[in-house]
Amino acid sequence: MIVKSLTQRGKRTRAALLTAGRDAFEECGYDGVRVDDVCARAGVSHGTFYTYFDSKEALFAEVAEAVVGEMFAANVVGPSAPADPYARIAAANRLYLRAWSANSRLVRMLEHAATVDDRFGGLLLELREVFVRRGEEGLRRLQQQGLADASLDPRLTAIMLGGMVEQFAHVWLDLGERASEEAAVDHLTRLWARAIGLTPPSGSGEEA
Amino acid sequence: MIVKSLTQRGKRTRAALLTAGRDAFEECGYDGVRVDDVCARAGVSHGTFYTYFDSKEALFAEVAEAVVGEMFAANVVGPSAPADPYARIAAANRLYLRAWSANSRLVRMLEHAATVDDRFGGLLLELREVFVRRGEEGLRRLQQQGLADASLDPRLTAIMLGGMVEQFAHVWLDLGERASEEAAVDHLTRLWARAIGLTPPSGSGEEA
Amino acid sequence: MIVKSLTQRGKRTRAALLTAGRDAFEECGYDGVRVDDVCARAGVSHGTFYTYFDSKEALFAEVAEAVVGEMFAANVVGPSAPADPYARIAAANRLYLRAWSANSRLVRMLEHAATVDDRFGGLLLELREVFVRRGEEGLRRLQQQGLADASLDPRLTAIMLGGMVEQFAHVWLDLGERASEEAAVDHLTRLWARAIGLTPPSGSGEEA
Amino acid sequence: MIVKSLTQRGKRTRAALLTAGRDAFEECGYDGVRVDDVCARAGVSHGTFYTYFDSKEALFAEVAEAVVGEMFAANVVGPSAPADPYARIAAANRLYLRAWSANSRLVRMLEHAATVDDRFGGLLLELREVFVRRGEEGLRRLQQQGLADASLDPRLTAIMLGGMVEQFAHVWLDLGERASEEAAVDHLTRLWARAIGLTPPSGSGEEA
DNA sequence: GATGAATGAGATTTCATTCAT
DNA sequence: CATGAATGAAATCTCATTCAT
User: Fold this and answer.
1) Do chains D and C touch (3 or more CB pairs under 8 A)?
2) pTM for the whole thing?
3) Which of B113, C75, C121, D120 sits CB 3.0–4.6 Å from C114 for a disulfide?
């Protein structure tokens, strides 16, 4: 689909469809959504959908890209990042849990879609890779500074600890395991820090 | 479907369908499988399917139960379990990776199914609960023995570290991250042990 | 579509669809026919159609092949063919007009289909080629016997005179030009014979 | 659609659509053309089309009329027509082949359209009738002059021989039968002339 | 029990045409 | 006049499930 330059109205309609689609996917899952449903939510007729998207799949692809983009954006540890390594890890975990909480269902859908269509697999790998890289480099830096166990493979470790956070987010947010955000961040951070041999800053180690 | 007592032949047919279904689901995913495909694999005619299963979903449910059963079974740390806590963790991780490697695709399908039908959600929760409980109790014991950080919430910790293993298994086996089983088990175990504050047995670092 | 061995009933249904399709195409033209129409005529439900044919086009292809087959068959100048060259031409023309009268609409449809899909073009070329060859060889023989103008290109001539018959058949049968079969065959034959320089047998020139 | 008096600009737009439509139909066939395609070719927006034409069909009708008009015009054997009957036939055949070569695809489309909509049938009959009449009258004149077989039915004969030329044009131009124009005209003319019993002018047989 | 023909609800997609701006 | 967004009536095709033999 060649996206032609759209008028104001066209942009509005397209955006409405995108939003409606995202909501619908979130609520009903990919297969649970019919193009008609999206149209109904967006308040447009059936045919209009195809003015803006080639297919249901194309809509999902766009939603997925938006979600992945948000996940990226939400996890940039900005300039305000704390200097203290432990606090950095805590901040990153908190950000990640929040980003996930906004998009959990859709990312899971994306995982499923990846199972069926490689195109989505690629998107997902990209996403994962960004996080893995970040963790990997963080760990490597700590190792160089003598603050973390130098015998750990940085990539493998980053995958494992990142996976811990991701999977916990899923269990917590999707499967309804009850825990406070504080407790969650605290535990994740303590486990992460200790796992890599980072000496917690004196006075830490409590989730109070 | 009330499973009536089956003749010898009936049992064989049913088993064939079950196996065929499992293979087909594994290969093609739930939606990718048509009842026809299953019948073709099993070498029976289309209509026969409904002699043994109420629906495609019913077949999947049965496959899923079998898989979950195997996951249970495979993870029983038998009487031969090592006494050493660290070795115990290592053994459990190895078993888990192996069990996962046999069933990874189907468990992911089950996760997706749970998204759509609560009935599968229950199965999955049960499965997860077993592992969580096991980890939780293990940790609690270690805490009582003064071998692990007593300030950690046992359940939360078990979920997190268990999630680490599960998610890693997924990344490793399904997403093709390259690593040897040795390295994987070694890292998982070291991270796990250190995360809970278990002093690695002197002279360790390897689980061999 | 792999045509599986069909039961008696299956064969009947398939034949019914084929007949229904042929009738429908004949009456309404390719685009005028919906799969539903064919099913209604055949007295089967919508889905049944796809048990036997992959698509509407596939059905048409089969109808087309049948028609072409009949055209072939109908035009075999059998062993009873007259020895007299003039009478032979007359007999062939009559056969051709009759074959055409049975299939005219469908052959025209096939011509149109060939415009859109090369696959049908091939079928049509085959059909045409058979007739051209036959005419060509007939003429060549006459030329060798000194009965026809030796300076005519046999292929070109066969195409032209064959085209005369075919086009006339179309005008006569499809466009409703009024003429008796006798007059038609008589004129076609006289024109054909004289065009190639065949001396009409003495006492001829009448359509009695 | 009542064609209102158009501004200069309006006329240009309309003409552009007409040309674009003709090209598009020629290239893609009736069904292969979407109104959008025509607009794109003409460089106007979608909605503009309906300012000038009531429907896609109306556009086609106008194109068809233009084509038929050209066929008429192109086949007027002008004042320069040779007096010699044989040469006259040759000239007419040549003109006809050329006219056809310019419009073959569209006339075939018209034939198909006639199949679906009687309105086009009328146009086509008119076209055919003009040629038939011309041939018929030519033959009748020759018969009166004692130059052609008086026993031939003029109309039937004209239809048949005209059909020969038309059908050959189709085979030659549309179906790709290979032949030079010279050979084609020569053969058509010889066959035609001899078929009606016209003694070729002494020294003729070739028009080279 | 087994077979495989029959069913039909439902989903996607196309495109000629209308209409508000 | 021109624009292009919106419409919605078809039409095709899939496949889980039922049922007569």
Assistant:
1) yes
2) 0.85
3) C121
